[in-house]
Specification:
Blueprint lengths: L2 H18 L10 H19 L5 H20 L12 H19 L1 E2 L9 H20 L4 H17 L7 H24 L4 H25 L53 E6 L6 E7 L1 E2 L4 E2 L15 E3 L12 E8 L5 E4 L5 E7 L7 E3 L4 E8 L4 E7 L26 H8 L5 H15 L1 E2 L15 H7 L7 E2 L1 H14 L4 E8 L5 E3 L3 E8 L5 E4 L42 H12 L8 H37 L3 H18 L10 H11 L5 H12 L7 H20 L3 H8 L15
Parallel strand pairs: 1-6, 13-14
Antiparallel strand pairs: 2-7, 2-16, 3-15, 4-5, 6-10, 7-12, 8-11, 9-12, 10-11, 15-17, 17-18
Helix pairs in contact: 1-2, 1-5, 1-6, 1-7, 2-3, 2-5, 3-4, 3-5, 5-6, 6-7, 7-8, 9-10, 10-12, 14-15, 15-17, 15-18, 16-17, 17-18
């Protein structure tokens, strides 16, 4: 290897290593750096061995290195055979080379690595091979450095929004990149030799390092610096729809004393749902936080709208995650699922930081950082257990709390309760005071019932119609956690305090959670963006039963009548997998005729591109027709004559014959006659000049006669060409470009 090749390889390696350090906040541990650097070295080696060979040789070398050595570099932690290029290893590498990018971007960082180490390995291979190949084959200073910049940009786009050490890495990368540019520039110009070149290089490197230091210290202070950087993780929509699972609040009645399942007469009120160990007594375990109300049920939103980016969506996580809400006491615990609990909703304390499943398919687990809610699409089953580390801070709402000044998590679906909210609030001096007044009103006037005999007239549900009946004037507030929590959250939003509903339980001394321990409470958003707990006993009196023979309600709170939803039996458990499968099948059942999948794929991947191409061709042809019409009908007779001659030149240009732009008409006509076979062009040029510069000037009849000859000349040119040549000329956009962009002859 020549000396300057060694210098290029070293600097490319340094730039690549610095770029890969940008993954520090994306991956857990240092295995990502090993995979990236190994790929970088292999790429440089492939480019060195294949110097002077065709590009296809380098491509084959990259593929061979990826599949033969990829298992040892990127999959070494997935089993003893994963280091060998066996079919399973090759299949995993191929799958992650296509789908790994999406998995990386939809997994909450830091990512454990595993098969996703394929991503830095691919980046290292490609950037190392391409960068060194350009450095060897090209004298220009910039191209190989641009490859390193592209690698850095790729790491940033695949990284996180607020990484650490950003300024330091940027300064180092810039210093090394500029140094490499200077070295290659001096080499290309062959300026000084021997000691003088060495001194110039040393001075240039020192200046680069000095500039990098100034940039590191003073860069963040410059005006116009963007507060956030653009990353793909914040732009994509994770491919997961939590809305397809039933709302756990809708099934709250299965935990009540008087309810039994129709199938096997199970009563969950005194059944063990799950057992918690390791958590302090009094810790809240949340099954789900529901932050969206559609007029029928409170449910978990796919995107709660709390933050810019994916932090408030349900994303895959690794065993460890960086949780911004985990600022309280850290505890370790384990939850074991009992015989009478299951479904997709995973009971967890607030602010999860680590989780490890023993039994369930943990690869499908999703977690929402903003709502501290976990979902396991493969569903929990009796006997499953999982260990976790989490923060168990539980901030309570107080009268001096300041509420959030942002938007509400619900829209206008519950606007009919605005008057009731104002009545219950009583005109306090702040929104949070009004919300607490609403809670006190509900507790003082409300009664509690699960709909057991003799109170069967109080059904389950929390739709607008059910809540309107619940609050109808002349009647009495009678319901359980489902109605009270749903209404409390709606009224809090109406008085200006964003609220959401949480279903869960408070851990007792023995750690066993039974159906009677399940409750629904409300969380209110405070001024700092945190959520404070409004406990169920602050807006609901569980000791006060409804009065018998109470007067029937005379009128609803509002004149707007909302039709009741179709009666639905509450799910047997929170997020019953059986009910979920039925719902999914019902939602996916086709209405009428459905096109086969292959037809849809053909229309999507073939039909749409063809349609776009056809639309573009039609636009070009239409523009030429409109231009010809405008030239023939608009302007003075002299302008229309000149337009006719330009139309002749443009028509010839569409067939690939370009007359000299600065020549006279007769010179242009000579080119058209000899190159395009337009024998009538010289006569038309003469007629143009004679008519245009005649004593009396052209008349309208002269212009029409001239344009007829233009049409004849166009037809003769088109008729002498094949059909394919005519089609290609019709869609050739060259004549539509300004004269300065067409080129000169």
């Amino acid at each position: 290897m020549k000396k300057h090749h060694a210098v290029d390889a070293l600097l490319l390696f340094l730039l690549g290593t610095i770029a890969f350090l940008g993954f520090d906040d994306t991956y857990a541990g240092w295995t990502y750096l090993i995979a990236g650097v190994a790929g970088l070295l292999l790429g440089i080696l492939i480019a060195f061995v294949g110097r002077g060979q065709p590009v296809v040789v380098l491509a084959v070398g990259l593929l061979a290195a990826f599949f033969v050595l990829g298992g040892a570099v990127a999959l070494h932690g997935l089993g003893s055979l994963s280091i060998l290029p066996v079919p399973d290893t090759i299949g995993t590498l191929a799958d992650n080379s296509v789908h790994g990018w999406k998995r990386l971007l939809t997994t909450l960082p830091p990512v454990d690595g595993g098969a996703l180490l394929t991503i830095p390995y691919i980046l290292g291979l490609v950037s190392g091979c391409l960068g060194f190949a350009l450095a060897v084959r090209m004298k220009a200073a910039l191209p190989p450095v641009l490859v390193a910049f592209a690698l850095m940009a790729g790491v940033i786009l695949l990284g996180v929004q607020d990484p650490s050490k950003t300024a330091l890495l940027g300064a180092l990368f810039g210093a090394v990149a500029i140094t490499w540019l200077c070295i290659r520039g001096l080499r290309a110009r062959a300026l000084a030799a021997g000691g003088r070149r060495l001194s110039r290089t040393a001075i240039g490197a020192g200046l680069c390092l000095g500039a990098a230091g100034l940039a590191f210290l003073g860069g963040p202070l410059l005006p116009g610096i963007a507060p956030e950087r653009t990353v793909l993780r914040g732009e994509i929509e994770p491919p997961f729809n939590v809305g397809k699972y039933p709302s756990p609040l809708a099934g709250f009645r299965v935990y009540t004393k008087g309810y039994q399942t129709p199938e096997d007469d199970r009563r969950l009120y005194e059944k063990d749902l799950f057992t918690v160990s390791g958590l302090p007594e009094g810790t809240r375990v949340r099954v789900a936080a529901m932050d969206s109300y559609d007029g029928t049920v409170w449910r978990a939103a796919n995107d709660s709208g709390e933050t810019e980016g994916p932090d408030d969506t349900f994303q895959k996580i690794s065993s460890t995650l960086r949780n911004p809400l985990a600022d309280g006491k850290q505890v370790r615990g384990t939850i074991t699922i009992g015989e009478d609990f299951g479904g997709v909703w995973v009971p967890l304390p607030t602010a999860l930081t680590r989780i490890s499943f023993d039994g369930p398919d943990s690869d499908s687990f999703r977690y929402n950082l903003a709502t501290s809610t976990g979902v396991l699409p493969s569903a929990l089953k009796p006997g499953d257990s999982y260990s976790f580390t989490a923060s168990v801070a539980d901030e309570k709402v107080g009268e001096k709390s300041e509420n959030w000044s942002g938007g509400s998590p619900i829209g206008d679906e519950a606007a009919q309760f605005q008057a009731l909210a104002a009545e219950y609030a009583g005109g306090g001096d702040s929104p949070i005071t009004n919300a607490l007044a609403v809670a006190e009103k509900l507790k003082s006037e409300g009664t509690y019932t699960d709909g057991e005999p003799p109170n069967q007239q109080y059904p389950a549900g929390h739709s607008l119609r059910r809540l309107a009946d619940f609050t109808a004037k002349g009647g009495q507030l009678a319901g359980n956690d489902e109605q009270y929590a749903a209404l409390m959250a709606i009224l809090a939003n109406q008085v200006g305090v964003p609220a959401r509903v949480v279903l869960g339980a408070v851990v007792g001394s023995d750690g066993v959670v039974q159906g009677k321990d399940m409750h629904a409470w409300v969380e209110l958003r405070m001024s700092d963006g945190s959520w404070a707990t409004l406990d169920w006993n602050e807006f609901m009196n569980t000791e006060k039963p409804p009065e018998q023979n109470a007067p029937q309600p005379e009128e609803l709170v509002t004149g707007k009548v909302v039709p009741p939803p179709a009666p639905v039996r509450p799910p047997a458990t929170s997020g019953d997998p059986l009910d979920e499968s039925v719902n999914q099948k019902a939602n996916s059942r086709p209405d009428g005729f459905v096109l086969p999948g292959w037809v849809v794929a053909v229309l999507k991947y073939v039909g749409l591109p063809l349609l776009l191409i056809a639309a573009l061709c039609a636009a070009i042809i239409g523009a030429k027709i409109w231009r010809r019409h405008r030239r023939r009908t608009r302007g003075t007779p002299v302008a229309r004559l000149a337009g006719g001659w330009r139309e002749t030149l443009d028509h010839a240009r569409d067939f690939g014959v370009a007359a000299p732009v600065g020549g006279t008409r007769r010179e242009q006509a000579s080119v058209l006659s000899t190159s395009a076979g337009m024998e009538g062009a010289p006569g038309l040029a003469l007629l143009t000049d004679t008519t245009m510069f005649g004593e009396s000037g052209p008349k309208d009849d002269d212009v029409e006669t001239f344009w007829e000859q233009v049409g004849t000349l166009r037809t003769s040119l088109s008729g002498s060409r094949t059909r394919w040549q005519r089609i290609r000329a019709a869609i050739n956009p060259l004549s539509l470009l300004p004269a300065g962009l067409r080129g000169r002859r």
